[in-house]
Amino acid sequence: MTETFDLVVIGGGVGGLVTASVAGQLGLRVALVEKSGKLGGDCLHTGCVPSKTLIRSAEIAWAARESGRFGVAAELGRVDLAAVMDRVREVIDTIQVHDDPERFRSYGVDVIFAHARFADAQTVVAGDRRLIGRRILIATGSRPAVPLVPGLAEAGYWTNETVFDQRELPDRLAVMGGGPIGLELAQAFARLGSQVTVLEMAERILPREDPELTAELERQLRADGVDVRTATAVEAVETRDGMRRLHCRSGDEVATIEADHILVAAGRAPKVDGLDLERAGVTVEEGRIPVDARMRTSVRHIHACGDVCGTYPFTHVVEYQAGVVIANVVFRLPKKADYRVIPWVTYTAPELAHVGLTEAAAREQGYAVQIARFRFGDVDRALAEGSTAGLLKMVIYRGRILGASILGPHAGELIHELVLAMQARIKVKHLSGAVHAYPTLAQIHRRAVNTLYADRLYSPMTRRVVGWIQRLVP
User: How many CB atoms sit inside 10 A of residue 411's CB?
Assistant: First the structure.
């Protein structure tokens, strides 16, 4: 059966759903093809939503253990991981209602659960249906990247796609990867009661972040009981009596880590296999689909967005990219993606949020920058809450923010004041002049900027000027 559509969308994650729903409600004939049998994508089922729900349970466990610091006597028994994962499932199911296929069908979208592949540049085969699209969007997302370590497959391992199905808390967990996913889950399991070891090949955790802040985060993770080992490669895995033994190397040193289970969090790989992209003439480079600023592939009427493009693997970015696709496909407006101000957050405790350039990146690009820092230990609300670890670091050039990093409580919420300032190109003096409610964590923005003016304000010259004013003006 061959049918013609204004838009064929491959992938039922955030990018595909946003694009299909808008196009359908605006009267386009839209087909949405999803392979897994359910809508919502990785973010809902195996990524953002379940991980943040698990992290919240881990925070409660940590608070119970630390309750004595707050003058409250509480005791925590062994954590019931099955009950924790039941709550994770409840949250997913609640949000899943918004991604009900019938909702999208009510928008006029033909939702098809089948494997999609290209027959040619205009035709997508989905099961026994042939879909001819005037425009086509590829939004298939990504999957966990699994390193080729001898014995790993035989030993068995978890990824973010399987970890939320577990029912028993492991006594010992080895996490391969010190990126955002690995660190978030490592700390969560440590707070729930597991003995956790993180094995990261790079010289430091989170290599894209500011090293000043990642060094402090690493200290906090260690304080939570996470054994962080950087510059460490897993060379082989063996299983003996049901136990995994990870043989590791760090320079000339070798070590063996024993664990009940292994969690692989070694990055993501775009889902391009099985699409038969060569039949459509779509270029694939290094396993991803390159696109231009209008989200067009090498075939102009075929667009792609999200993780499959390998740009920024964040849900908020694919939602933004979907808006670019909608402008081009639905309204025929030549809108281009602008990644100048893209925030991201690692949801450890404390959280690490970032936007724009780091200090090192700014200096490498030739900017003579000023650095404004302020620690949460000097913010009254942080003291009241007992969450004083971390700092705000702003990278400033000619009075405007080039980038900022926040390590601290609720950093993922606090970063957005700086995102807006960068987006609107607001000078930092306006942050200093804005009245911030007391006591709030957000005061850290004003306090950080004020450090830039302190030397000038209390300089000998300013003191002389004030003296003249007092003598001359009655």
Answer: 25
Answer yes or no: is pLDDT of 458 > 90: no
Contact present, 282 and 299 (Cβ < 8 Å): yes
State the pLDDT at residue 370.
97
Binding site members: 52, 140-142, 177-184, 200, 267, 307
Q: What pTM did the predictor assign? A: 0.96
Binding-site residue numbers for FAD are 52, 140-142, 307
> CA 433 to CA 440: how far, in whole Å?
16
Q: Is 39 helix (H, G, I), strand (E, B) or coil?
A: coil
SS3 441: coil
The binding site for NAD(+) comprises: 177-184, 200, 267
pLDDT of 460: 87
CATH superfamily placement of domain 350-457? FAD/NAD-linked reductase, C-terminal dimerisation domain (3.30.390.30)
Q: Express each pLDDT in 346-399 by its tens digit.
A: 999 999 999 999 999 999 999 999 999 999 999 999 999 999 999 999 999 999
CATH among 3.40.50.720, 3.50.50.60, 1.10.10.10, 3.30.360.10 for 2-144+269-329:
3.50.50.60
Span 273-284, mean pLDDT?
Answer: 98
Same fold, 2-144+269-329 and 350-457: no
Q: Is the dihedral of CA 44, 47, 48, 53 positive or negative?
A: positive
CA-closest candidate to residue 182, choices 150, 153, 147, 139:
147
Q: In this predicted structure, what is the pLDDT of residue 242?
A: 85
Sketch the domain layout of the chain as residue ranges.
2-144+269-329, 152-266, 350-457
Transcribe 366-408 into DSSP letters: T---EEEEEEGGG-HHHHHHT----EEEEEEETTEEEEEEEEE
Q: How far apart are CA 407 and CA 412, in angstroms?
A: 9
In the numeric block, which tokens belong to residue 109?
């979208």
Q: In whole angstroms, what is the distance from residue 271 CA to residue 42 CA?
A: 12
The CATH code of domain 152-266 reads 3.50.50.60
